[in-house]
# Entry
Amino acid sequence: MKKHVDARGLSCPEPVLLTRQALQDQVVKEITVLVDNKVAVENVTRMAENSNCQVKIEKQDSDFILTLIKTK
Amino acid sequence: MQKHALIILSGLLLGALAVFLVFMGNPGNYGVCIACMLRDIAGALGLHQAQVVQYLRPEIIGLSLGATLAALITKEFRASGGSSPIIRFSLGFAGMLGMLVFLGCPVRTVLRLAGGDFNAGIGLIGLIIGIIMGTMFLRRGFSLGRAAKMSPANGYVFPLFILSLLTAALIIPSFFFASKTGPGSMHAPLLLSLGAGIVIGIMAQRSRLCMAGGIRDAIFFKDYHLMYGFLAVFVAALVGNLLVGSFKLGFMGQPLAHTDGLWNFLGMLLAGLTAILLGGCPLRQLVAASEGNTDAVATVLGLLAGAAFAHNFGWAASAKGVPQAGQVAVVLGLIFTLGMAFALCKFKVGGEVKNEKTCGC
# Structure
């Protein structure tokens, strides 16, 4: 199952928190996270990599789309 | 370790420069303190009348300009706002009351500790408890709501204000109040303070250094990235203090500090709690304000206003201790902050945050 997290405009550490909650769902294998600043990109990426996820980052206008795929 | 190199370097630089600034004239363990320095700036602008703590600290000016410069160069400058500005202002105000009762922000807590000041150890325990309390609210869904993108002009207001302060200070230094005695009169040479501020600002913007965030992430996410920065500040300042002979172990006779443990604890508990609810310590707020984040500007204005009130009405602590009015201010600040924290868990500012977070495609 895929999940979608829209964390645009939220201040630190809410994007990480929402993503982590989504990751904890066992049936979810892939999550896309939408954020709007570099700090959130770095924080979510770091958390995802620490949680055994592969992270792909794309820029879309002024937003960033992070695709997280669980490797375990 | 390579991915932590920048944050460690930033912490080491901040710690080393802080000791150097004290060596060059700043008060003891006061090389960098966002709270005290904003308090001195509030005094320089005449927002409070405590004549011993008035000086337009160039470190803050430099720090802000350095952060703006780094954000512009890396294209990270981005005007945004609208995430509960008035609550951010109030939490900044309340946090400042706590920090002025302890006498330091989270950065100075570490610097004081690195100078051997045990009182800061009690403050640090308060800070950690405040941070744990803050993370408990975050777990329960506390949110100040979403910020929206704004027209760039909004983002430039704060940097232009800072630039104007610098310009005025360079052209007509007498424009601002400046202490003739007391801590406000003790400072490193202007260009040195400014230069150090710029370096710290650039590094803090690039590394996202945040003292409260370091403790929060370590406890909350078992992510020690920001913590490395925190520890690096401590190590560099400790080594620096030992080298220049400004290390003094104990509770008594510490520079710009008092020994009232209860209020050191509660003051920093309030500081930690507000920092977590705001998403970062005063250093991080100042950097974010300089990157175009107008919500962080609201916080910095709250910090300035809190300092002005604290010194106009005698709420701030001094080496002599904590006045009764200051104790009342901290308790009221705690009640207000906890009330806001509960209210914002329940009602969710920007309500759709929860619904949007899992649309289960």
